[in-house]
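Hi R.,

Here's the chain you asked about this morning:
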Amino acid sequence: MNAARNIVVGYVLAATFAAAAVWLQGALSRLPEEEAAGGMAAFGDLVLFLAVFSVAAIHPTGQILKRLTGARVFWTVWPYTSVVLAITGLLASAEIVLPELVRADDYPSLEMAVPLRVLAAGPLFIGFLLSAFWAPGGRYRAILLGCAAAEVVGAGAAIGKWVLGMGS
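And the predicted structure, written out as tokens:
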């Protein structure tokens, strides 16, 4: 019971650190009030929260995975679930980098979800790496490391297109 409490406390602390980072960034921001209230500023706050929370939550997530080391069902299902998640990341990135191949215009909801899926690449990358560290077998470890690599490749391509205008 004490271990479960420590894990919960770890996640609460991670959320607290992330919220504090967003608050501090807002307090130090020199944007005019009308600019700071815009959607772009809110999106930036979301990205900052997600980044800080993901790093701060490494310890409690690792503790959960450590406790699941002997859970055969988990380690049978999780690596293959991770493959499906990694494929969604590659598809989302393909929609950004090669939109003419994916034709997301036919699916407006998909087009709106794509940037959010790319943002999830960071936390998923961390989760896949931690899972690979605690995975009980070499086959599972290799699958999870492949999923982590897929997140880097997919998100890197999408961010490269967004930030650097690569492939324009």
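The mean pLDDT is 86.

Let me know if you need anything else.
M.
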